[in-house]
Design goal:
Elements: H1 19-24, H2 35-52, E1 59-61, H3 65-74, E2 81-85, H4 88-99, E3 104-108, H5 117-126, E4 131-135, E5 137-138, E6 143-144, H6 147-156, E7 160-164, E8 183-187, E9 199-203, H7 205-211, H8 223-231, H9 241-257, H10 259-282, E10 288-289, E11 300-304, H11 311-319, E12 326-327, E13 336-340, H12 347-362
The protein binds pyridoxal-5'-phosphate.
Residues 13, 64-66, 89, 135, 139, 164, 166-167, 187, 190 line the site of pyridoxal-5'-phosphate (PLP).
Amino acid sequence: MTHPPFGTFFLPGPTEVRGAVLAAMAQPMMPHRGAQFEALFIRLQDGLRHVFRTTRPVYVSTSSATGLMEAAIRCAPAGPILSLVNGAFSERFAAIARGCGRDTRVLGAPLGTVHDLGDVAAALAANRHVAMTVVHSETSTGALADIAALAALAHRYGTAILVDSVTGIAGAPVETDAWQLDFVLTGSQKALALPPGLAFGVVSENYLEQAHTALARGMYFDIVEFEEYAQRNQTPNTPALPLLYAADVQLAAIRDEGIEARWARHTAMAQSTWEWTDRCRANGIDIDILAPIGARSPTVSAITVPPGATGGQVVKRVAEQGFVIGGGYGALKDRTFRIGHMGDHTVAGLAGCLVACENALHVGR
Ligand SMILES: *Cc1c(COP(=O)(O)O)cnc(C)c1O
C-alpha cells in the first residue's frame, strides 16, 4: 500500500498520521488475554508514562476522548461540579456533567481568553465543589490555560481538577505527577498523531480512592475497572488492537524524539504561525491570532479573518492548493479558520501550509 507524502494535512484533529504508523495497523490479531498482549501493554505503558510524566498507570480506552471526559465525571464523588467554560470543548465537559445528572455550576470566560485566576478562586471559595473541569488547550479558540496554577488553586479548596488535555498532551508541557492532576486525558488523534479511536487518561490515587464512593460509575467508563485491569497489564474489554499496534510504533518514535524536544518543536511551530500573522498584518492582510499573547496554545491557532471574508472561504482556497486546514468551530465558524500545527509536523513543513494560507487570503483582495 502506498501513502501520500507526509506534510499537507493540518486539521486540528484528526491529525496527519505517518505511513509507518498506518502500516503498523495491518498486523494479525492476538488474544487480548495472554502474555503477548501483556508485553504489548507494558511497552505502551512505558511510552505513555513518558508522555504523561507520571508513574501511575495510563488507562487505554477504546473510545474517543469524550469517553474519558465522561469517565472523569461519572467517577466523581457526590457533590457539585464547577466547569470552567471558554469554548466549545469546555462547554462539552459541562454538558457531560449535566448529562450525568450532576449539579453543574459554570464559570464562563469570553471566547479566545482563559479564566482569570482570581475569578476561579472566588467561584471555588463561594461554594464547595467536589471537582472542577477545565480544558487545557481549547481547540475551538486556540487558548491555553495555566493548568499548574489552576490545579494548585483547586487543591487549596479541596476540589479535584479534571483536565481535558486532548490538544495539550504530547504537544504542550503537562506534568501529571508534579502538578498533582486528579484526572488528565487525551485522544489518540491529536498531538499524538495516531488515528482516532483511542483515549488515554491518568487518575490520581486520591481521585481513584474517592471513585469507590461514586454510586453511578456505570461500567464501560469506570476507572475502578480500568485500574484493576491496568494492574494486570490488560484492558477491561476487547481493545481496538490495530490502534494499539499503531500506538506501539508511534510511542517508540516519541520516546526517541523525547517529550521535551516534542514540546519544543510544537512551540517553534506555534511561534512561526504567530510571526506569520504579524507579517501578514504588516503587509495589509487584516488577520490575527484570536487568543492573547501569553495564553496561546502551541498546538492549534484560531486565526481571525479579514472583514468581508469567512473562515470557510479560506479553508476552500487552501484546499485548492493541496493543504487541509480547519474551519472555525461553533460560534467562531465564520470569523476564524484554524491551523493544527501539531503531531509529527515540522516548522519547515508548516511553512508550505502558511504560504497556501497567505495566497488564499490574497485572493479577491
Ligand atoms: C478533539 C477534542 C475533544 C473531543 O475528542 P473526541 O476524540 O472527538 O471525543 C475534546 N476536547 C478537546 C479539547 C478536543 O480538541
